[in-house]
Recover the amino acids of this structure.
């Protein structure tokens, strides 16, 4: 039984790729399955908009969103107005959220989720394609390249190693955050 389908995008910064990732939670296997990874590089935002619209029709996900930190707020506004993507949700990242705020789902605690992701990867919660597409391979390769840094304010954050991109990984984190919340909710309802 498929429990939840999520597609998330990370518009990135000025020269970064627009990363889009799609996941499914397979309730019977208790696995998060990575089904889609797409990098849109050096293309206008209309290309990513058309791709998201196409994936919405094909995959019929329960949730589609984009990260709204940095340039994402402008991209979300553009997509909702110009492309009539009123179904697209914005999701922010922050650090050191309370558990109550984490449960709401529309702000992801990045340090918490990176640790959660790495733990779940070690425990085998994720299922990757046997024959990954080139973009899925980029996502797989981005996972070990994520490093922790200390911000000027003394907090811990995570990003790709210098000179590397993390847009697919960040989109994957957002997907996993929604699935984590779904799994936790299902556990509470038992």
């Amino acid at each position: 039984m498929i429990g939840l389908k999520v597609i998330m995008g990370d518009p990135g910064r000025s020269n970064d790729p627009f990363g889009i990732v799609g996941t499914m939670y397979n309730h019977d296997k208790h696995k998060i399955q990575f089904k889609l990874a797409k990098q849109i590089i050096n293309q206008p935002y209309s290309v990513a908009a058309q791709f998201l619209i196409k994936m919405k029709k094909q995959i019929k996900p329960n949730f589609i969103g984009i990260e709204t930190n940095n340039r994402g707020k402008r991209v979300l506004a553009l997509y909702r107005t110009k492309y009539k993507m009123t179904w697209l949700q914005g999701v922010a990242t922050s650090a050191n959220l309370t558990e109550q705020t984490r449960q709401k789902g529309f702000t992801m605690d990045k340090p918490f989720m990176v640790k959660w992701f790495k733990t779940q990867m070690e425990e085998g919660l994720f299922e990757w394609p046997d024959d990954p597409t080139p973009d899925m391979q980029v996502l797989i390769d981005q996972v070990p390249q994520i490093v922790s840094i200390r911000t000027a304010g003394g907090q811990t954050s995570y990003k790709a190693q210098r000179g590397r991109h993390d847009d697919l990984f960040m989109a994957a984190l957002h997907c996993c955050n929604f699935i984590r919340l779904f799994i936790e909710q299902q556990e509470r309802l038992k």
Remarks:
- Helices lie at 45-59, 72-81, 99-104, 110-123, 134-142, 167-189.
- The longest helix spans residues 167-189.
- The beta strands are 2-10, 18-26, 31-40, 63-67, 89-94, 107-109, 126-127, 146-150, 156-160.
